[in-house]
Design a protein that fits this description.
The protein is α+β, with helices and mostly antiparallel strands and 281 residues long. The chain has one domain. The protein contains eight helices and nine strands. The strands form two sheets. Strands 4-3-5-6-7 form a five-stranded mixed sheet, with helices on both faces. It has a four-stranded mixed sheet with strand order 8-1-2-9, covered by helices on one side. 31% of the residues are buried.
C-alpha cells in the first residue's frame, strides 16, 4: 500500500513537472522579434526602446497576454491591398510563382513591432502553411498606387541563399520574383505597381542590387500615443528619452503623414476594442 501511495505521488509530481515544462515551452513561443538597434519614435518627440516582457511569475497571465498580443497583430494583417489605407507596410508572399498570397501589415514603429517578416510568417502559419516565396517592404500612396522592394533578411536567408552568386540572385529576382509579385498585386485589383529597382549607373549596394531600393528606412515613422499605449501593454520599455530635435510640447505630426495616411488604424473594430482603459497606461 505504501509503495502504491509513493508511486501515485511520484506520478503526480512527474505530471506536474511535465505540465510546467509544457506551459514554459508555450510561453517561449512564438516570441516576437523586432529591431533592437532602432528606437520607436513618437509623435510627441520621444524615443522608446522596447523589448519582450520578462516571464511573469503568474505564467497563466503571461500566456493570456501573449494570446492577446498574437490576436491583435494577426488582426492587422491584410491580403486585399486594393482596400488597404495609404502607408508603409512589410509583406510576405506564401506559395509559388503562380499560386500565392500576399500578407501585409502596416508598420507603425521604427522597431517594426509585430510587423517584422518573421512575425508575419508566424502569425499566418495557421491559415497558410505554404513556404515563403518572397518578402519585402511596400508603400501605398493616397491614390492606391503601390511601390515595393524585396528588402528582407528572411527572404535573403531562406530563398536567395539557394543561389550562390550575385548574378544568379539578380536573375531570379528579375525574371521570377518581381513578375510574380506584380501579377499577384494586379489580381487583387491594383494595376499601378512598381518595383523599386536600383537604377543603372547609380551607386548601389549588393543588397540594393538584389532587393531594390529601401522604403521604410527612407521615411520617418512616428508612433501615435494610441499605438504607444498598445506597445506598452504588450512589450517592455527597456529605455526611453527625448528626441534631440523635438520641439517643446512635442510634435503634432501623425505617424502616418509622411508617406502614409491620417487614419489611426486600418481595422476600426480592432481599434475600438483596444481603446479600453487597460490600454491607456
Amino acid at each position: 500500500m505504501a509503495a502504491s501511495a509513493n508511486d501515485t505521488r511520484h506520478k503526480r509530481k512527474i505530471q506536474t513537472e511535465d505540465n510546467g515544462q509544457k506551459e514554459k515551452k508555450e510561453r517561449k513561443g512564438p516570441r516576437f522579434v523586432f529591431k533592437t538597434r532602432e528606437q520607436t519614435h513618437t509623435t510627441n518627440g520621444k524615443w522608446i526602446l522596447y523589448g519582450n516582457k520578462p516571464l511573469n511569475s503568474n505564467n497563466h497571465d503571461s500566456l493570456a497576454l501573449d494570446r492577446e498580443k498574437i490576436e491583435y497583430f494577426t488582426d492587422r494583417i491584410v491580403t486585399d491591398l486594393s482596400n488597404a489605407p495609404a502607408g508603409l507596410y512589410t509583406w510576405i508572399m506564401r506559395g509559388t510563382k503562380d499560386n500565392n498570397t500576399i500578407y501585409a501589415s502596416q508598420t507603425r514603429s521604427k522597431q517594426e513591432l509585430g510587423t517584422l517578416h518573421l512575425n508575419l510568417m508566424i502569425l499566418t502559419k495557421n491559415r497558410d502553411d505554404r513556404p515563403l516565396f518572397a518578402a519585402g517592404e511596400l508603400k501605398i500612396d493616397p491614390q492606391g498606387a503601390i511601390q515595393f522592394n524585396l528588402q528582407s533578411g528572411l527572404f535573403n536567408t531562406s530563398v536567395l541563399k539557394l543561389y550562390n552568386t550575385k548574378q544568379k540572385k539578380i536573375k531570379f529576382v528579375t525574371n521570377t520574383v518581381v513578375p510574380a509579385v506584380i501579377n499577384a498585386i494586379n489580381r487583387i485589383g491594383v494595376m499601378q505597381v512598381q518595383y523599386l529597382q536600383c537604377e543603372q549607373g547609380k551607386s548601389c549596394t549588393e543588397e540594393e542590387e538584389t532587393g531594390g531600393k529601401h522604403i521604410l528606412s527612407e521615411h520617418s515613422i512616428l508612433s501615435s500615443e494610441e499605438n504607444v499605449a498598445i506597445y506598452d501593454r504588450f512589450f517592455n520599455r527597456v529605455n526611453s528619452g527625448v528626441l534631440p530635435n523635438a520641439k517643446k510640447g512635442g510634435s503634432k505630426r501623425s505617424d502616418q503623414k509622411r508617406g502614409g495616411t491620417k487614419r489611426s488604424d486600418q481595422n476600426r473594430s480592432v481599434t475600438k476594442r483596444y481603446k479600453t482603459r487597460k490600454y491607456r497606461r
